[in-house]
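Board notes (copied after class):
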Amino acid sequence: MAWGRLFWAVYLRCEDLIVAQILRSPSFHRGVRRIHRTVEDLRHGRDPREPLRQGEATAEPNRAGGFFKHFIEELKNQARGKPTDPPPPPR
């Protein structure tokens, strides 16, 4: 029974050290900041007073849902019997 208590005490201490190390990490805070900014932009819209972010000026404007939109369009074409890239004719 004493070994079980010792194990849990060591385990909890290690957990505290790991959490403290993560909270000290600048990359963790950058990630949280990026996620928070994305959620706020989705909920409330982009703040027009905020400067452009890196790569935003050159980004394609209609990129939202690009893969999913293309995938659905391809499924529709195949259901119609007209695939986007038809196979080559047999020789």
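Comment from the instructor: The chain has a mean pLDDT of 83. The radius of gyration is 25 Å.
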